[in-house]
Design goal:
Blueprint: H1 3-36, E1 42-46, E2 49-56, E3 61-65, H2 73-78, H3 80-84, E4 89-93, H4 111-125, E5 130-135, H5 138-148, E6 153-159, H6 169-178, H7 182-188, H8 191-207, H9 216-219, H10 228-248, E7 259-263, H11 272-282, E8 286-290, H12 298-301, H13 303-314
Parallel strand pairs: 3-4, 3-5, 5-6, 6-7, 7-8
Antiparallel strand pairs: 1-2, 2-4
Helix pairs in contact: 4-5, 6-7, 6-10, 7-10
């Protein structure tokens, strides 16, 4: 064996040991995160998938669907879950692969796939004619629910959503993490520490121009979002987002339910003038509410306004204002 071959073998051995060490460390960190943030709700199994959800209150049903790189704890942290539970039966789901919900590898998990699964969960849990509120990526899941399962949805509240296809660099960047084999290697080695390192900057961008709430580190399970399993779900959602809008945009005019749209002019994640403003013009039975001094986290910035609009959607026969508000 030549010196060069010996050096290459040593380098490969050291690399393998380092990656193995990272895999063990990340696995232990994921288990520690799950101990720190255990499931506080209940589980329902539909189509072989175990979904975690929280439920509280009585009255007309409201379903809350969180965005990407998130979990149902975001609705708790914003205070909207507890506010709605005063007058509604409110159910918040961990979407497939997020929080404490499963995401098997046997399907693509597009927004339509997720909507189909949630519709089955609605049937099991006796949820009918619900106001469905979706944030960010989950606005597409909410739209797919209303389009493909109209009997389950009475109205939609869409918060800081992405509705029309654009070129997104973030989707290209996360694509390797969603890939088979290579994605598994990345998710168990370098992706978790990288994701943890960039999380503070990501949260700052999401909440900008407002500060990240002081209580967020205690109330929102950020550590759950950097586990290998959820990193796969995060990446898959990032990859499927733009193609889903390309499919769904041609169906928006078929929506038969009223829609309340919420957006912030200073959203640094999604250009809301291009997205929410355009959707409002496409949907005649919609309202558009611009939350002042706000970025992507509109439900944290103005939960009172979101609650009032959901109450309007839920009220039987209540008229919706159709003029855009600024």
């Amino acid at each position: 064996m030549t010196d060069r071959q010996s050096t290459i073998l040593k380098t490969l051995g050291i690399t393998a040991l380092a990656l193995g060490g990272l895999a063990v460390t990340n696995t232990l960190a994921a288990r520690a995160a799950e101990r720190r943030y255990p499931p506080d709700g209940r589980f329902v199994t539909v189509d072989g998938v175990r979904l975690h959800y929280m439920e509280a209150g009585e009255g007309p049903p409201v379903v809350l669907l969180h965005g990407n790189v998130s979990a149902l704890g975001d609705w708790l942290a914003s205070g909207l879950f507890d506010r709605l539970a005063q007058n509604h039966r409110v159910i918040a789901f961990d979407r497939p692969g997020m929080g404490h919900s499963d995401r098997p590898r046997d399907r693509a998990w597009t927004p339509e796939d997720q909507a189909d699964l949630l519709a089955e969960a609605f049937a099991v849990l006796g949820i009918e004619n619900a106001v469905v509120a979706g944030h960010s990526y989950a606005t597409l899941v909410a739209l797919a629910l209303a389009l493909d399962h109209p009997r389950t949805v009475k109205g939609l509240a869409l918060l800081a959503g992405y509705y029309f296809p654009t070129k997104r660099v973030d989707a290209v960047m996360v694509a390797p993490v969603a890939a088979p084999v290579l994605g598994d290697l990345l998710r168990y080695t370098v992706s978790p520490p990288f994701s943890k390192a960039v999380m503070p900057a990501l949260l700052k961008t999401m909440f900008s121009p407002r500060p990240v709430p002081d209580h967020l580190t205690e109330t929102f399970p950020a550590a759950l979002t950097t586990r290998p399993g959820q990193l796969r779900a995060n990446a898959q959602d990032g990859v499927t987002m733009a193609p889903a809008t390309d499919r769904l945009q041609h169906r928006y005019a078929d929506l038969a339910v009223p829609v309340a749209i919420f957006a912030g002019h200073e959203d640094r994640i999604v250009s809301q003038e291009e997205q929410s403003g355009r959707l409002h013009h496409v949907l005649p039975n919609s309202t558009l509410h611009w939350v002042p001094d706000c970025g992507h986290m509109v439900h944290h910035a103005d939960p009172e306004q979101v609650e009032r609009r959901i109450d309007e959607l839920s009220a039987e026969g209540a008229p919706l204002r159709v003029a855009a508000q600024r």
